[in-house]
Amino acid sequence: MSFGENLKQTRKAKGFTQEELAEKLNVSRQAISKWEAGGGYPETEKLLEAARVLNVSLDFLLDNVPAEGSGERSGAAGSGRNRILITVFDGSRTVDCISVSSSRILFPGKNEPEYILEGVDRTGILGDHKVVLGWYDGGEEAEKELKCINDAVRRGRKTYQLKYFTPVEFRGVLGRAVRAEPEDPKETVPLTERGLLESDMLSDVLAENGIPFLKKGKMGAGLAMKAGPLLETNIFYVTRENYGKARQLMEELFAPKDGAEGEEADVPEEETEEG
């Protein structure tokens, strides 16, 4: 609800008429009527006084709680005591949220997710300041995210990482969010570049573990530029779906061994006789 609706409902719940509340705030009845109708906000001093008279928090009066049937759901709502740091969909920043809500995009464009998740990080005279936390293909995913955030708040967690969002990329002059193209697991990506000896070792390990790979030779300058280009290294390529396993095998194969060349062992200093 808006500030005006919150003010009106709270006033009635406390048993005040517009005239009585106006008298306590030292304003006219018309001012109260104007605020409740959404025609503006009182000055900060009057806002604080209204919260005191009505025995509610300023956050409560200014909180935009979604109305029934608006297509918006809220969660993790509360005062500063329940703030939670939420990392946005792309990991670029964290938002210190007072409350979180999901809503349906009224007219989504082509390939645009239908729901967004927003967090309120501060409130003021003009209402809530909202930050988009993530996009969602359906309401079910957004609701699941909200439930997890609420659970995190109840458990006293201070941070939360989004789990169910839809990856998006921004296109066009206005930067419209559209579903990101999924990565092709069969796409070939570079794994490493190795010398001839290490190339043979890595080829054997990848073959033994059933990982298909492509090996391309890279020519060097040759001996003092006289012998012509010589094969010096090999560049290995694997499919994206096999990259993680291939990388792990490679790191295990070439991990430094105890006492390996390049690592200096502790050698006791020789005692010299003074002559």
Instruction: Give unreliable regions as ranges.
Output: 64-72, 76-80, 259-275
Compute the separation of the termini in Å.
Answer: 96 Å
Strand tally is: 12
Number of helices: 8
Residue share in helices?
25-40%
- Would you list the SSEs in sequence order as H and E? HHHHHEEEEEEHEEEEHEEH
Averaged pLDDT: 78
Major sheet size, sense and barrel closure: 4 strands, antiparallel
CA radius of gyration: 32 Å
Rough outline: elongated
Beta percentage is: 25-35%
* Class computed from helices, strands and strand pairing: alpha+beta
Side-by-side strand order of the widest sheet = 1-4-5-6
Domain count: the total is 3
Topology at a glance:
Blueprint: H1 3-13, H2 18-25, H3 29-36, H4 44-53, H5 58-62, E1 72-75, E2 84-87, E3 94-97, E4 99-104, E5 115-124, E6 127-136, H6 139-154, E7 159-161, E8 168-171, E9 176-179, E10 188-195, H7 196-208, E11 214-219, E12 231-239, H8 240-253
Parallel strand pairs: 2-7
Antiparallel strand pairs: 1-4, 2-3, 4-5, 5-6, 8-9, 10-12, 11-12
Explain what this protein looks like in three dimensions.
- The chain is of the alpha+beta class.
- The chain has 3 domains: 3-62, Orthogonal Bundle (434 Repressor (Amino-terminal Domain)); 72-179, no CATH class; 188-253, Alpha-Beta Plaits (2-Layer Sandwich).
- Helices cover 31% and strands 26% of the residues.
- The protein has 8 helices and 12 strands.
- The chain has helices spanning 3-13, 18-25, 29-36, 44-53, 58-62, 139-154, 196-208, 240-253, and strands at 72-75, 84-87, 94-97, 99-104, 115-124, 127-136, 159-161, 168-171, 176-179, 188-195, 214-219, 231-239.
- Strands 1-4-5-6 form a 4-stranded antiparallel beta sheet, covered by helices on one side.
- A hairpin with a 6-residue loop joins strand 2 and strand 3 (94-97).
- Helix 2 packs across helix 3 and helix 7 (196-208) packs across helix 8 (240-253).
- The longest helix has 16 residues, at 139-154.
- The radius of gyration is 32 Å and the shape is elongated.
- Mean pLDDT is 78; it is low at 64-72, 76-80 and 259-275.
